[in-house]
Structures are given as C-alpha cells and as structure tokens.
Design brief:
10 strands; 6 helices; six-stranded antiparallel beta sheet; four-stranded antiparallel beta sheet; alpha+beta
Length: 224
C-alpha cells in the first residue's frame, strides 16, 4: 500500500521538516484525531495520544470496533493540532490563526502483552507526571479490557505545518491605519475540583498539585 504524500501543497512555505519541532508538538498536545476507512466510509475519532521514544501510542477498550480495526493493521492518518494565537489582520480575508499542525500516516500494532504494563504506566505518567507512584497496580481485569497500540514515527511518515508569522495585509490596508497583530492563546491547568465521593480529608496528591498553574505542555516519555 502506497503512503500518502507528506508534501504540503497549499502554503508550502509553512512546511517544517524539523523532527524536533514535530516532537515538541506531539509532547504538548494530549489529543489527536485518527482517521480510517470503516465499512467503506471515512470516519474520524478523537483520542488521547503520547509520544514514547519514537512511537505514537494510544490506548482504549478492547471492545472498541475501531481500535480493533487499527490493531488488525488498518491504514490510519493521525492529526495533531495546537492553536497558539489568533492572527488579527486588517481584513477578514487575511485574519487567521497561529498554529502547529502535524499529520502522521501508517499503521498501528498492538503492544505485546509482556510490554503492556510498562506502556500503560508510561502513558499515565505522560498525562499526569508522577501519578503512577501514587496509584495501585492495574488489575488483571483492567489490563484485559485495555488495548495499547503503537505507530512508529519514522523519517518520512509525517508532515508538519507551522503558521507563526504576522498578518500579511495589503499595502492599502496597512496605510488605512487599522490595528493588526496577534492575540496569544495558551492552555493552563486550573484549580483541582474534588470528586463528590472523595473524602474532604484526603489531601490533593503531589502529581495534581504540580499541574496547577502550569501550561498544559507535556514531555515525550521513555519506557522505564
């Protein structure tokens, strides 16, 4: 099966071939959309992702039809996008966003049973750093109900597009004197909210306290 082109055709000057910039985006974005063909129709699903070493890793229920299809080797496209700001131009036509967007193509494979616990714990610590040490071990039932899949990140199965410039207004619009610029956009972790069935005397754990006020940027993890 041939791989889709990874060359940006529209606004090609925004294509970025830096693997470091790709990793930076994947590490800062916990949510992706995964597209595949199911029953002859294109479908897309949102899911949590993490970069572990040179792999893109997802997990979900063993009862999920689309996860099982991926596990069976269905071709997939994974899109990860971060909005970094609003580009306020002097016309609606030139107004846009500052963004980073990547698409990865390939197939997922199931993480072998002997490695699954390590992958799942690394996923948890990627989403909530330090949380695994605060939790009980996963039960056999939980592990049996969970599927972990991985897709290799190679040198040629991804495309990265970055829009980080200023408004590009026509000279006449610039001369008209209207305001133009950028409104930055960031995502910050807020104050934790205790679950209704959580004992008020139970302290907020260090892993959660460490998140408060931080930008929601994560780092790619390596298997322990």
């Amino acid at each position: 099966m041939s791989q889709p082109s990874t060359t940006v055709s529209r606004l090609a000057e925004k294509q970025n071939t830096s693997r470091a910039r790709l990793d930076e985006l994947l590490d800062a974005t916990p949510l992706a959309t995964i597209a595949l063909i199911r029953d002859g129709h294109p479908v897309v699903f949102p899911t949590g992702i993490a970069r572990i070493d040179d792999e893109l890793v997802i997990h979900g229920s063993t009862g999920s039809p689309w996860m099982r299809q991926l596990a069976d080797g269905a071709a997939a496209a994974v899109c990860v996008t971060a909005l970094d700001g609003v580009l306020v131009a002097r016309s609606g036509f030139e107004s846009s966003f500052q963004f980073r967007s990547a698409v990865l193509f390939g197939t997922f494979e199931p993480v072998p049973e002997a490695e699954k616990v390590g992958y799942l714990e690394t996923l948890t610590d990627t989403f909530i750093p330090g949380r695994v040490a605060e939790l009980r071990a996963s039960s056999r039932k939980e592990l049996a109900a969970t599927m972990a899949l991985r897709m290799p990140i190679t040198g040629d199965n991804w495309s990265l597009k970055i829009g980080d410039g200023w408004p590009e207004d026509d000279d006449d619009d610039v001369a008209a004197g209207a305001w133009a610029g950028i409104v930055p956009l960031t995502t910050v972790y807020g104050e934790p909210r205790r679950a209704p069935d959580c004992d008020p005397a139970t302290p907020v754990p260090p892993s959660v306290n460490a998140m408060v006020g931080e930008l929601s940027n994560r780092r790619g993890r390596q298997l322990r």
